[in-house]
């Protein structure tokens, strides 16, 4: 069936139905005495590739609704329980993925995965949602290099972290340009926030001082800057404690 995910109610129903499908799939896999015919019947009824595709859609939809839940979304959304762990594997984590990428670059070996297979696996596992978009972007940007070279785990980690740092710098530079600020000044402002995990309104005022705005115009500029800067700061803070003082702009 075609899945129509317009509206939060439809998205919530999709999540609940798919969790039931996954539950049944898990129960079927527990029958260890299945013969080849039984396995083929299950595969025909619910192809692995189809399940993987819907699993990726489930993760994206659940994360979207969870963000809305945190912002006081609809009552139905607030009632949802997002059991993302259901689709996670303790093996599929950052270290494991870095190792897989390194192995994919080594010559020979029947068990190594291709970059496309790694990207597909990343997309279908919930416990990688904080890193998966960046890892996929890194793999796509370096596809030719990774397909023709031979790299260790350390090489992959260093390359990925350098890629993330460059990407973050480019995003921050664009934000600075959008608001008429110096990139280094905005970087210093962000660094101070992340060092202490505290947002300081006086430092924001100092950051905008070179624009020589009146208080009304400065307030408008502050709100516009923080609206664009908030997602950037939240991403930097993933896995750490909350940034104190940011709630005034959320």
Description of the molecule:
- This protein is mostly helical and 250 residues long.
- Helix content is 66%, strand content 0%.
- The chain contains twelve helices and no strands.
- It has helices at 8-29, 36-45, 48-70, 75-79, 94-104, 115-123, 132-141, 143-148, 153-178, 183-196, 201-208, 215-236.
- Residues 76-91 have low confidence and may be disordered.
End-to-end distance, in Å? 38 Å
Name the poorly predicted regions.
76-91
Structural class: mainly alpha
DSSP strand content = under 5%
Shape: globular
Give the strand tally: 0
Could you give a short account of the major beta sheet?
none
Oligomer: single chain
Radius of gyration: 23 Å
Top keywords for this entry?
250 residues; mainly alpha; 12 helices; 66% helix; globular
Short description:
With 250 residues, the chain is mainly alpha-helical. It contains twelve helices and no strands. Residues 76-91 have low confidence and may be disordered.
């Amino acid at each position: 069936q075609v899945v129509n995910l317009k509206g939060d109610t439809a998205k919530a129903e999709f999540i609940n139905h798919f969790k039931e499908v996954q539950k049944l799939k898990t129960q079927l896999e527990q029958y260890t005495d299945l013969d080849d015919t039984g396995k083929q019947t299950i595969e025909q009824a619910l192809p692995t590739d189809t399940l993987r595709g819907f699993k990726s859609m489930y993760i994206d939809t659940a994360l979207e609704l969870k963000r809305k839940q945190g912002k006081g979304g609809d009552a139905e959304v607030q009632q949802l329980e997002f059991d993302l762990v259901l689709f996670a594997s303790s093996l599929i984590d950052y270290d494991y993925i870095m190792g897989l990428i390194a192995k994919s670059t080594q010559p020979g070996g029947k068990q190594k995965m291709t970059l496309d297979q790694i990207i597909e696996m990343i997309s279908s596992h919930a416990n990688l949602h904080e890193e998966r978009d960046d890892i996929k972007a890194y793999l796509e940007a370096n596809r030719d290099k990774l397909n023709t070279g031979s790299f260790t785990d350390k090489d992959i980690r260093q390359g990925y972290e350098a890629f993330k740092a460059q990407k973050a710098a480019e995003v921050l530079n664009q934000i600075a340009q959008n608001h008429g600020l110096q990139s280094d000044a905005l970087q210093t402002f962000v660094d101070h926030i992340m060092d202490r995990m505290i947002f300081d309104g006086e430092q924001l005022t100092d950051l905008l001082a070179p624009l020589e705005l009146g208080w009304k115009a400065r307030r408008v500029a502050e709100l516009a800057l923080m609206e664009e800067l908030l997602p950037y700061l939240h991403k930097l803070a993933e896995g750490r404690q909350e940034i104190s003082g940011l709630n005034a702009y959320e």
